[in-house]
Write a structure and sequence with these properties.
CATH architecture: 2-Layer Sandwich
Number of strands: 4
Order of helices and strands: HEHEEHE
Structural class: alpha+beta
Distance between the termini: 53 Å
């Protein structure tokens, strides 16, 4: 019985909801005007719950964000950049 309880606890810990998925979105951030701007944008995105990775390019004026769609969405990401002073939109 003890082994079964341990196995059940381990399975529950390792399983993720079937509806949760990791997604990647590219945001256009045209308001970045200097090489320091991406630092602020990355910090803002990294503070959003569910964001796993954020890569921001000054040269391309974009951010590529990988996130758990059960915890956040593209609207929350664009809101985070706007609140940091850098309005963004999802690139199609």
């Amino acid at each position: 019985m003890k082994k079964f309880a341990t196995l059940l606890a381990l399975a529950a810990t390792l399983s993720t909801p079937a509806w949760a998925a990791t997604k990647t979105v590219t945001l256009s951030v045209p308001g970045m005007t200097c090489a320091a701007c991406p630092i602020t944008v990355k910090m803002a995105l990294s503070k959003v719950a569910g964001v796993e990775k954020a890569e921001v390019s000054f040269e391309k004026r974009e951010a590529v964000v990988t996130f758990d769609d059960a915890k956040t969405n593209a609207d929350a990401l664009t809101k985070a950049t706007a609140n940091a002073g850098y309005p963004s939109s999802v690139k199609q």
